[in-house]
Design brief:
It is a single chain. The chain contains 7 helices and 14 strands. The chain is globular, with a radius of gyration of 17 Å. It starts with a strand and ends with a strand.
Amino acid sequence: MPLSLTVLGTASPYPQPGRPASGYLLRGGGAEVWVDAGFGTFAELQRHTDPTRLTAIWISHLHADHSADLAAAMYGFAYGGLTLPAPLPVYAPAGCARRLAGFFGRPDTEFLSGVFDFRTLYDGHSARHWNLTLTAHAVVHDVEAYGLRAECQGRVFAYSGDSGPCDALPRLAGGADLFLCEADVDTHRDGEPRVHLTPEDAGAYAKGASRLLVTHVGPTLTPLAATARAAVAFGGPTECALEGDTKIV
């Protein structure tokens, strides 16, 4: 199975008609991984695979536009007749299970264990599923957050998650065959924390990668305009992430 990425959603910070929040299906080496579970992405996931076939879920950070549809998946697996062969590994920052349990009004997390096997991410965390290796890189955001580098049979996919400018991003993107990068904000305002990237930031950080895929464009920009700006800064093949598209890495 070649390494591929299917776009489930790209919107920030809330879903829009036909445009769910952040979510992707990464497939390769026999594994199928749901990367980020933003609002609306569980429904889109079902267009492209049977959720019971998932190998793992990987969550970059706990903002709702990247993680809220874990609740939808819990309903599907626990109460909706979607039967998993075993608890599904969920790689996420600390506290993810507690936050999901709170949605169900439960103070404990034990009831989740029959569906999800939560595994805490940290900088350098690595997991292998079949011939797909997932490695987390800590990035700068206003909460604990990670970018992802996935390797499969000589191909490399990198994902910024949500991040402000930081030294981790060029290391994440370096040598990647495809770099999926957010371009959430139009510009950075003086004095405000830099917790997201501009299109120009995305293009500059992608320079070590072969191709750039621009995603998670915020409401002050249009995806196509952000992609055009990122392409100028990158100087290489640049595309706009569109819901339903599949890219071979």
